[in-house]
Amino acid sequence: MSGSIEALDLAALLCSRVCHDLISPVGAIVNGLEVLAEEKDEETKTFALDLIKKSATTASAKLQFCRIAFGAAGSAGAQIDTGDAEKISRGLLDDDKTRLAWNLPRALLAKNRVKLLLNMLLIAAHTIPRGGQLTVDPIGAGDNVGFKISATGPNAKVLPGVPPLLSGEAGPEALDAHRVQPFYAGLLAEACGVKAAMAMDGDTVVLTAQ
Q1: Can you give the pLDDT of all 210 residues of the chain as single tens digits?
Q2: pTM here?
Q3: Cβ atoms of residues 22 and 62 within 8 Å
Q4: Domains, the chain, ranges and CATH?
Q5: Distances, alpha carbon 184 to alpha carbons 115, 119, 165, 201, in Å
Q6: 3-state SS assignment for residue 154
Q7: What is the Cα–Cα distance from 182 to 127, expressed in whole angstroms?
Q8: Main-chain dihedrals φ then ψ at residue 203, nearest 5 degrees
Q9: Could you tell me if 29 and 52 are in contact, meaning their C-beta atoms sit under 8 angstroms apart?
């Protein structure tokens, strides 16, 4: 699967995905600043300042997550602390709508394995758009540990077209900024020598890599 898309096309699509995620909070910051500059009403200014603070926090959390999930994250062969992965995951996903239970032991793992975990977690979060519970569990142990991510919430469902992209069974035809992320997760799984899958288990969406 790794040779099925040009490197430049993959890079462009991933950049588009990151930009898409950042447009909303950055745009809210700009709008808030415009209100502060033009409004004289103190209550409105307070609301604008609160919007700016929340949007800046959101943008920062997304950038920190994307830096590891999509970025180089060190030199070839580098390792990433799963404790750092947990911290940035909580910063992005653990909020008043969604709770994150992280049951992985802290360890240094190969960067592509941690990047795979983060990309799977992002996919899992999208299966519960109204919020709920995300649970991360290990499969096995050691350097070759696998992952199981369970997503439970109102109307939790497998995203159309995502399982074959994640498992490597679908090619890059008609990829866009939304579909490229599960496709990229499939590339990471291939690089790690594991098989990624996604399916319903009762009312819970389960993603595995082993």
Answers
A1: 444 678 888 889 889 888 988 999 999 999 999 999 888 888 999 999 999 999 999 999 999 999 999 987 655 568 999 999 999 999 999 998 999 999 999 999 999 999 999 999 999 999 999 999 999 999 999 999 999 999 999 999 998 899 999 988 887 776 887 889 999 999 999 999 999 999 999 999 999 999
A2: 0.88
A3: yes
A4: 7-209 (3.30.565.10)
A5: 10, 8, 8, 24
A6: coil
A7: 12
A8: -95, 10
A9: yes
